[in-house]
Amino acid sequence: MSQFLTIKQASQWATRLLEKQVTTSNISYLIQYGRIKKHNENGTILIDVTDLENYYKPHHQTKENIWKKRLGEDLNWALSFDEYKESERTKHVHRIHPYKGKFIPQLVEYFLDDHTDDFKKKVFFKKGDIILDPFCGSGTTLVQANELGMHANRILLLPNWRR
Questions:
Q1: How many CB atoms lie within 10 A of CB 36?
Q2: Which residues in the chain come in under a pLDDT of 50?
Q3: Is the dihedral of CA 30, 33, 35, 37 positive or negative?
Q4: 14 Cβ partners below 8 Å, 6+ apart?
Q5: pLDDT of residue 161
Q6: Is the CB of residue 48 less than 8 Å from the CB of residue 37?
Q7: Which of 108, 114, 107, 110 is nearest to 128 (CA)?
Q8: Residue 14: its pLDDT value, please?
Q9: CA 139/CA 161 separation, integer angstroms
Q10: Rounded Cα–Cα distance for residues 89 and 69 (Å)
């Protein structure tokens, strides 16, 4: 026999399952876009627990495990910066405009700053060094280099202009 939950109960159920906040808006989104079926009873929207289980079961794995299955066990998960919220990953000037290929500042800091770990055995950059970013997408490397006391430059190629 099916067990039905209200939207609020479904969000609480999913929050316990995933061990992270699932809001009523998240559940409403799933219903609106047909990810889970809604049932009506006297004007109240109800959700079948079985539908929730079927939807969330594949999502119950950690992101790390999902990506390691796809890319291999030797994946260095520390470079995912998964512990940061989106607002922390795009600190200060990095949110000025959208750019699909942008680095998160923490990734650039990882390669430029003077910390060491198992992956990065040597310190490659020091204060006062010059960092060249020939692609200079949204400027994240330039900004982070300057924050770390390094000089940053980009290459600007202009077409040959006729006089």
A1: 19
A2: none
A3: positive
A4: 22, 26, 27, 52, 56
A5: 57
A6: yes
A7: 114
A8: 92
A9: 26
A10: 25
Q: What is the pLDDT of residue 160?
A: 65
Tokens of 20: 């992270």
Tokens 């939950």 identify what position? 5
DSSP code per residue over the chain:
---EE-HHHHHHHHHHHHTS---HHHHHHHHHTTSS-EEEETTEEEEEHHHHHHHHTGGGS-HHHHHHHHH-TT--GGGG-TTS-HHHHT-GGGGSS--TTPPPHHHHHHHHSS---SS--S----TT-EEEESS-SSSHHHHHHHHTT-EEEE----PPPP-
Do the Cβ atoms of 35 and 58 come closer than 8 Å? Answer: no
Tokens representing 129 are 């060094």
- Beta bridge partners, 132, equal 153
pLDDT value for 123? 67
Q: Which residue has the tokens 């999902």?
A: 66
Provide the phi-psi class of 81: left if phi over 0, else alpha when psi is between -120 and 50, else beta: left
Using alpha carbons, select from 132, 144, 136 the residue that is nearest to residue 102: 136
